[in-house]
Amino acid sequence: MISKRYRPAVIAGLTMAVLSGPLLAYPANAATGTPAPTVKAADAAPHKADRKTAATFARIAEDVLSRRTQALVQGRGGSEDGTAKTRMSARLKKDEDAALRSLRSRKSRLAALGEAYTDADTRVRAERATITGRTATVRVTASSTLTYKKVRGDEPDTTAFSTRQELTFAATGNGWELTSVTSRDNGPVAVDEPPTARVKTVKDDGKQYPNGTPASTAYPTRPTPRKTGGAYDYSAMARYTEKYWRTYNAAYRQFNGAGGDCTNFVSQALKAGGWKSVPGTSSDYRNWWYDGGRQSASWVGVNEWAWFTLSNRRAPNLTNVYQLDVGDVLQVDFDRNGSKDHSMMVTYRDRRGMPYLTYHSTDTYRRSLASIIASYPNARYFAYRT
């Protein structure tokens, strides 16, 4: 316990509305030609881009986002690979060059931990393309897969992830110029995204909460022993998580538009593995439940879940993150401000002891712990033995 605890507001509400109309899908690796737009006075009002223009935007997004993913692949991503075909503003080109340098550094940090990728594939789907005068705003979803190099032989075949981006364009005499690429996800950066500064303001309510003990991120000289026994079905937890990481279970509400779905997803998996509900008022973190129309704060809130599990002794803290095994939970305080930001579940562990995490909010399948730490080396980590 600590004398004061930063307590974020309880997550409430539903996910953002699904965009109406069919999604527009485009093939990978298409040419990125940008036909010069013709803008009339009547076009000043926002309107949906025609299919040909929307296809152009999708190809541009795929070109830029594919280069980020390729920067992580062994033998690729050198400086000669960093010049995209896409026409960009000078400021964005500078930012993208910096992003690629950051990703190449991440690749080096991963190599030092014995991890590498041999191939990458990124497919982009345009959700909405709106033109207003001589500017355009385009929302896309990128689905990416990285193939693990078989260093030890029992690594997973791949890691996969979906990211949501918003791109802005400006019309020029030579065609559409890309001016910005902004993530719409509220989870950790994806494997192929550069780190971003987080600004999160939380208020101190003066109350006491079980804080937990941060775990060391020092890599052990030998694999830590696997957990044995336990009252729960950890394989069921992993199967559930890997089944619904990208296609959400319709039996549960989503919270991507209301603070993030990560802890909601972890709670679902824990329930699938045998965790029992604790009834009571929804605001009391000592209770944990979901009834279809409502849920406890601890079911969906990152901090509230930690307070519940520590106060009820459901899952004690581990001293080192590499002790994590299948069915265990990892939480991260990215900016070390005393408020936890994200929850993930281990769904695979190789014989060297490397945990692989699957999670919602930046929907991701079997991302290695090494990759998380390489992206956030200065974060504070909390590991839980479920």
Automatic annotation (TrEMBL):
Q: Name the Pfam families on file.
A: Amidase_6 (PF12671)
Task: Mark out the compositionally biased spans (Polar residues).
Answer: 210-219
- UniProt keyword annotations, A-Z: Signal
Transmembrane regions: none
Q: Which residues form the signal peptide?
A: 1-25
All residue ranges annotated as the Putative amidase domain in the record: 232-382
Query: Where in this protein does the record put region Disordered?
Result: 201-227
Lineage, top-rank taxon, reads: Bacteria
InterPro entries for this protein: Amidase_6
Protein known as: Putative amidase domain-containing protein
The source organism is: Streptomyces longispororuber
The top of its lineage is: Bacteria, Bacillati, Actinomycetota, Actinomycetes, Kitasatosporales
